[in-house]
Amino acid sequence: MATALTAHPARTIVASILDLKGAPAFAEEPMLSNAPYAAMRDKVFLVAETVAALFDQSPAELTSAPGLSQLQTGFQQILAELNAFISNKNAGHIANASNYVEQQILSLLWAFGPKIDTLSPETVVRLFQQQAEFSRQTIAEVSAQRDALGITLTDLKIAAEAQQSKFDALSERVAQERAEAAAAVAKLDQQFAQNESARLTV
Predict the structure, then answer these.
(1) Residue 7 burial by CB count (10 A; 0-12/13-18/19+): exposed, middle or buried?
(2) CA 48 to CA 46: how far, in whole Å?
(3) Pick from 62, 66, 94, 157: most CB atoms within 10 A?
């Protein structure tokens, strides 16, 4: 039973979706500042985890081949949307993936047979723990990025202030040298005038 279902193309696509779960894009903007999109992301991956468990636990003899084929089509669309999001960070792809889950995947879970609702309590707990851990890691990464950004901004401010100090010192030095040069030129002009006056009076 497990061999037949774990080798099904739909199971392979579900595995590909779960492989994307750790992609940095899902822990960055716009996921960070938009709770609805983050909830849609969590739903997609949690349902994928659940379906993977159903593939692993359901007797092949009780499953529906046409139903699994429709699931395969739905998950192909979800995988395409997730890859598109990773590519362009357009959160609309997350919304599309969530809609596919709502409209196609959840309505097709009957394909796993009459015992569809009998996932073991341990499996249910494990799935929600995994999703909670994913959310915790995302929050930790956000905090780390925020702290790193704060350090970077502080360093940039210090560097800018140092550059400003150097510029001010350079400007003051240039002004002083210009003043000294002007004084030297004035002195030369005065000396030249005195020499010229003395030459004319001789």
Answers:
(1) exposed
(2) 5
(3) 94
Tokens of 33: 């500042």
Identify the domain boundary among 78, 96, 119: 119
pLDDT (tens digit, 9 = 90+) per residue, 119-153?
A: 565 665 666 666 667 666 776 666 666 666 667 77
Print the domain residue range for 195.
121-202
- pTM for the complete prediction? 0.57
Q: Do the Cβ atoms of 57 and 123 come closer than 8 Å?
A: yes
d(CA 74, CA 145): 35
Distance in angstroms (rounded) separating the CA atoms of residues 36 and 132: 16
Cis peptide upstream of residue 114 (ω within 30 degrees of 0): no
Does 128 lie in the same domain as 188?
A: yes
